[in-house]
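Ticket #4471: complex job returned nothing on first submit. Input attached below:
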Amino acid sequence: MEKKVFTRPRYLKDAVFHYCPGCGHSIIHRLVAEVLEELEIGEKTIGVPPAGCAVLAYNYLDVDMGEAPHGRGAAVATGIKRVLPDRIVFSYQGDGDIAAIGTAETIHAANRGENITIIFVNNAVYGMTGGQMAPTTLPGQNSTTTPGGRDISRDGAPLDLSQMLAIARGSAYIERTSVDSPKNIRRTKKAITKAFLTQMEGLGFSLVEILSACPTNWKMSPVDANKWIKDSMMNTFPLKVIKDKTNEK
Amino acid sequence: MTEKQLMRGSHVIGEAAVRAGCRLYAGYPITPQNELTEYMSGAMARLEDGTFIQAESELAAINMVLGASMAGARAMTSSSSPGISLKQEGISYLAAQELPAVIVNTMRGGPGLGNIAPSQGDYFQATRGGGHGDYRVIVLAPASVQELADLTRKAFEYADKYRTPAMLLGDGMIGQMMEPVVFPEPVDLNKLPPKPWILDGAIGRPSRIILSLLLDTTVEEEHNWKLVRKYESIARDITSAETFMTEDAHLVVIAYGTAARIAKGAIKRVREIGLKVGLLRPVTLWPFPKRVLIEMSRQIKDFLVFEMSTGQMLEDVKLSLEGRSNIHFYGRPGGIVSTPDEIAKEINSLYHRQHLEED
Ligand SMILES: Cc1ncc(C[n+]2csc(CCOP(=O)(O)OP(=O)(O)O)c2C)c(N)n1
Ligand code: SF4
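Support reply: We reran it on our side without changes. The output follows.
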């Protein structure tokens, strides 16, 4: 008998991803679905998709999903969680969504120690709107609004939101991972698991920042895109546990 | 029914909201409505299942309310004009996603930062949707402290029934006013109609989605028509207006909220000198009481619209009457509150200018 090695996780719908080939969102969706299944929390989970390429996350993740306006994921998730404290609530947000237009909502949710989880997908561009500069765009990186490359004296330097969130007292667990390689994908899954466990134990705000390829807007092949994450992105955004208070209690 | 008590308007909204089953309030400080936010902080803390959040901005507050509504709670936010502008994105999403919520706007002088004096400058913003897209918000305009209690209850009921945001539109005058009030009994949350659309986890049922992104234009069109059909049924069901001394009137003043109180005082004065003047006070600003107005125009040939603005409701009066009667206007913007004497003078001169004593 043939051994089945690749089955669809229970909380992933039987739908074809609209994401571009090599896009990190597809991998991350799958990881979230796997974790929800392994922790047996899918049926009590409510997800909040962003405005961004992952806006259609509700077409793939088979849990209750409520769309937030661009950047407001943390506020919407806060509202849901406060009403239903025994449910698991997460928002899924891109770097533009969370680190530009939604910075205030995110920092204050972390500071209040909202018991929610955020999956923060950092692909260093605005994917959905066609590759404009994001707060996370690297110095010198070309985007459709930084044609000569990001000039930090003009455009500002990449913003490390996760580090900022770590300063907030209420954040319990923040880790930066990547989905550029099988090893890092496994590490990302562990981090997502830990983030949800943090919430399940009521320890406060948890967030996993995931470096993720956008081959389309980077104008690279998927292989080159993953190499670029490793060679360039990780210099500015090193992979690490940025904060972990989960053992303190 | 509970006992009659003397209470401040803004506290009355808070108490009425609690009794209507509001379980999440999120707000950001702005004068002249801080008393409501402060009241809610205490009231929610006293409830076992209440949540009060002092939000980092009005944007955050409305989106917390949006999340709470998705999760099935009765939820409210409040602000004053500049803050209501910030909430408009969220209100548009509430309308699109068909989520109930109550928003209180204690209007102040504007535009811009303006001042904190009572104003009615946000009528257009409130009654035309306010945010982006083709939608409407239920707008209720209380003119007394008792009505603040009654309309707050109604706002929650309408919002739930029609799955749409409802706004209470007042100003600092009503908010600060002390008047006797009798509250309705608190609702039993367990007896409210079930909401078979909320997001509370897909336990024993298929997962649900609440969204407003409708990429297929024909689907978006149908969604818009569906909203229109809903708005039509709201207009049929809840449109409401008060009339005062209109039976024998030759001239009818049209005013809402604080302006209507002032107009009432003016009408009492001119009645004393024999002028036959009445008042029409829209209680629902959207839906606007168009039929009442058309009906009235069979007898009344002259209407005086009085607003604390340069003329906003005036447009709805014109749209309702479509040339049927003479429409006059008196308004003062920027937070100026006219006195009953001032309006009485205006009525008097208009009355004689139009030769209304001759009828
Ligand atoms: C208020 C508002 N402003 C702008 C937009 C347009 N918009 C949609 S997604 C997006 C940015 C997406 O970038 P990111 O958050 O990095 O996610 P990605 O698509 O890269 O996954 C923008 C600007 C919007 N939907 N709403
Ligand atoms: S544009 Fe980029 S982020 Fe969006 S789906 Fe394509 S690869 Fe993914």
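The interface with chain A takes residues 23-24, 26, 51, 53, 55-57, 59-61, 63-73, 75, 89-90, 93, 97, 199-204, 207-213 of chain B (CB under 8 Å). Closing as resolved unless it happens again.
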